[in-house]
Specification:
This protein is mostly helical. The protein has one domain. Helix content is 58%, strand content 0%.
Length: 50
């Protein structure tokens, strides 16, 4: 896992992800990038990471 290789505590990673989701920083702003996940996969991933 990345967490182990970087020696970062798991709760720190989850907190950062939660903050990114809360501040909608994961949404593409310039439409230069697009998701490789469909809407259902995205919701499953968010649920899993929350």
């Amino acid at each position: 896992m990345i967490v182990h290789s970087l020696l970062v505590h798991e709760s720190t990673i989850f907190r950062h992800i939660k903050n990114f989701i809360a501040e909608q920083k994961l949404a593409p702003e310039n439409f230069a990038s697009f998701s490789h996940l469909d809407k259902e996969q995205t919701m499953q991933l968010i649920k899993h990471l929350s």
